[in-house]
Amino acid sequence: MMVLVAxxxxxxxxxxxxxxxANLERLESVTLALxxxxxxxxxGEWIALPLMRRAGSLAxxxxxxxxxxxxxxxxxxxxxxxxxxxxxxxxxxxxxxxRAGELGIPVYTDVRELLG
Length: 116
Prior knowledge:
This protein is α/β, with parallel strands linked by helices. It has helices spanning 17-28, 31-36, 44-55, 63-77, 91-103, and strands at 2-6, 40-42, 82-85, 107-108.
């Protein structure tokens, strides 16, 4: 399955690049196990961040950032067969879970459920 890994990225960081990088590292920490179990893990930021840079975003949260951050995740979610929601406060991840429910996509809060 293509599995969206959702959780805090920007939330709780005060837009500190080091804290955002740490959150991305945490999201990425489950991807290898998912891949080794036969899935294709994806994280919205893997696609959104290069698009935002290419479009000319100059700061986290600027107009260009907002134009791509959540829309990328929403489009990506429509291609996924599952979501893994990592713990932690995140409006974006909560929205991913809500949209997954509308689309009938199962949401897992324990990655081990997908590891076989």
